[in-house]
Design brief:
The chain is mainly β. The protein contains no helices and twelve strands. The strands form three sheets. A six-stranded mixed β-sheet has the order 2-12-9-4-5-6, with no helix packed on it. A four-stranded antiparallel β-sheet has the order 1-3-8-7, with no helix packed on it.
Length: about 120
């Protein structure tokens, strides 16, 4: 399984950006694919995931601002991020087999990680 994340950059507060995660060697149908992020000096946290049946999950901190979607024809998952805040600044990682239990997120035994893409929200 290979995951290639892209789309990070520098954005002003209130701005928007879309991250992409191209996935190969993975069957979309059976697992949740999603995003984690890690801010400087903080632990990695779950952000969002989308299941094979298109059920979506979001961390409370991004609900209403971020939207996850997938294009099966392109084997790509997207994270549209709107109304960005400085606290969204982090390295964003995509992953497969994302499991959300309550407010806890982790990657399951069949999961893989992509390399990170960095988002900086600053004026």
């Amino acid at each position: 399984v290979q995951l290639q994340a892209s789309g990070g950059g520098l954005v002003q507060p209130g701005g928007s950006l879309r991250l992409s995660c191209a996935v190969s060697g993975f069957t979309f149908d059976h697992f949740c694919i999603g995003w984690f992020r890690q801010a400087p000096g903080k632990e990695r946290e779950g952000v969002s995931c989308i299941s094979g049946s298109n059920n979506t999950h979001y961390a409370d901190s991004v609900k209403g601002r971020f939207t996850i979607s997938r294009d099966d024809a392109k084997d790509t998952v997207y994270l549209q991020m709107n109304s960005l805040k400085p606290e969204d600044t982090a390295v964003y990682y995509c992953a497969t087999d994302v499991i959300k239990q309550g407010s806890s997120w982790h990657v399951g035994e069949f999961g893989s990680w992509g390399q990170g893409t960095e988002l900086t929200v600053s004026s």
